[in-house]
Amino acid sequence: MKEKESKKRRLSIKSSIFISMALLVVVMLTILWLTQSVFLSHIYRYTKKNETDRAASIIVDNINNENLNSLIEKISSEYDLCAEVIRYPGDKEILYDSHFLNDCIVHKLQLEDTLLDFWYDMAQESGGKYTDIVPRDKFREFYDPDDFHGDVPRRGGDANCVISVSLAETSDGDSVMVVLNSFVLPVDATVKTLRLQLIVITIVMLASAFLIAYILSRRLSLPIEKINKEAKNLACANYEVMFPQEGPIEISELADTLNYTAKELSKVDAMQKELIANISHDLRTPLTMISGYSEVMRDIPGENTPENMQVIIDETARLSSLVNDLLDVSRFQSGTQKLNISRFNLTESVKSVIKRYDKLISHNGYIINFVYDEDVFINADEVRILQVIYNLINNAINYTGEDKTVTVKQEVADGVVRISVIDTGEGIAEKDLPLIWDRYYKVDKVHKRAHIGTGLGLSIVKNILLLHGSRFGVSSEVGKGSNFWFEFKIL
Ligand code: ADP
After folding, report:
1. Residues of the chain above pLDDT 70, percent
2. What is the DSSP string of 196-261?
3. Do residues 105 and 152 touch, judged by C-beta distance below 8 A?
4. Mutate which of 424, 432, 436, 452 to test ligand 1's pocket (most atoms within 8 Å of Cβ)?
5. Pocket of ligand 1 (CB under 6 A)
6. Where would you tag: which of 52, 283, 322, 487 has the fewest CB atoms within 10 A of its CB?
7. Among candidates 43, 39, 55, which has minimal Cα distance to 106?
8. Which has the closest alpha carbon to 408: 458, 378, 366?
9. CA of 392 to the centre of ligand 1 (A)
């Protein structure tokens, strides 16, 4: 129920991309609308005011420049403004005069004392510089148009005047007032045009967002849908699936990983199946033997011999060792295997394991040599180390060559004892060497009855030696034999 709800709340790739794109478009368009429509006149006024300020600063910085006149002309034309440099307070003489604008208010009002006084006071109050955007009507507070030769010039309806007044001092010690005047034109018409453009842009952008979202989502979701379909097949234990490596890098990498996973799963599956087949085979063989011999012994009194009894005992031992191996593996797998460490005679342990093969030696002509110089004591779990030695010797006997010889060597060097179990058998190919320590791994699948194993022996050896923290390894040459070894510190 909960899963269903969360599924409902989640969006498809297509919707997510489209919503994201639409959001992006909305944000971008909002910014465009705000800057190009709502705040355009504010931005324009701000820019104009800044420009006029900058022009005033240039003139003030160059007030003693002998080319000031041409500089003022240049600035006036560049910034579309008119400029006056008036000696003030003082004789109010106009030192420089540029009226690039033909309706320059300053030029027409320059002699108006009240206005000049007002600007002068304002500039002084503001630290030598006064800038303002003044509505044209405001001039009338200082100036009566009737006294003026002509009307206060109007330029484009509600045009506002940018006034910048700066105070400076010339090298002659004269105080001067630099008065600049430019116009802020009304932007209503521009805004209208821009709005129309923005409506078109909005429609085009939303349509493109939809199209891009559609194309993108198809590119993303199609390969994912295919992967999903194949993954469902994989979930049904169909390991032959092939995840298509299409779409963006991440998705094709995912497909690659899934292909690898499917391959590994199929390997594990095959190994498990093989293990079960082996175990069943291994369980069935001794069971058949036990039940067969028991029946014969029950039904035919003469068959109740110690030899037949021994077969039953041997097969029972085989069964219990197989079950023990499986238990060991599961304990190592779950990490619950604990060691029972004590000091014991390793040389004696090797001897005792070899002794178990006395029968094999006398009946089948096997030769097990034990080469050693002295008795060596180590600290370890004796039962487990016996298991290691037993497994290695058992393998050596199973795989050794025609000479049926196995050599066990005990070498001591630098306080370390190395036990090597050497056979003269078929050897192990280099590519298989790292794998033989894995659970269920078996190089040769076709082997004699005596060789049938579960593929667990070396995995158990490895786990025991790893738990002890001891070094171990194998060197082998195909056709010549193998040398399995492990080392322990001597006490
Ligand atoms: P198994 O029960 O099959 O012997 P092991 O884990 O003991 O399982 O060994 C894994 C595989 O390693 C064996 O199937 C065999 O192919 C290979 N192997 C082990 N010991 C030897 C050896 N002395 N010589 C050649 N091959 C060996």
Report:
1. 87
2. HHHHHHHHHHHHHHHHHHHHHHHHHHHHHHHHHHHHHHHHTT-TT------SSHHHHHHHHHHHHH
3. yes
4. 436
5. 395-396, 399, 423, 425-426, 428, 436, 441-444, 453-459, 482
6. 283
7. 55
8. 366
9. 9
> Residues 364-373: pLDDT tens digits?
889 999 999 9
Strand 472-477 to 405-413 pairing: unpaired
Q: Is 90 left (phi over 0), alpha (psi -120 to 50) or beta?
A: left
Q: Which has the closest alpha carbon to 319: 293, 280, 346?
A: 280
Residue in 441, 431, 489, 491 with CA at minimum distance from that of residue 462: 441
More confident residue, 228 or 116: 228
Question: Residue 150 pLDDT more than 50?
Answer: no
DSSP secondary structure string for all residues of 337-366: ----EEEEEHHHHHHHHHHTTHHHHHHH--
Per the CB < 8 A criterion, the answer to whether 111 and 124 are in contact is no
Cα–ligand 1 centroid distance for 489 (angstroms): 26
Total H helices, total E strands in the chain: 13, 12
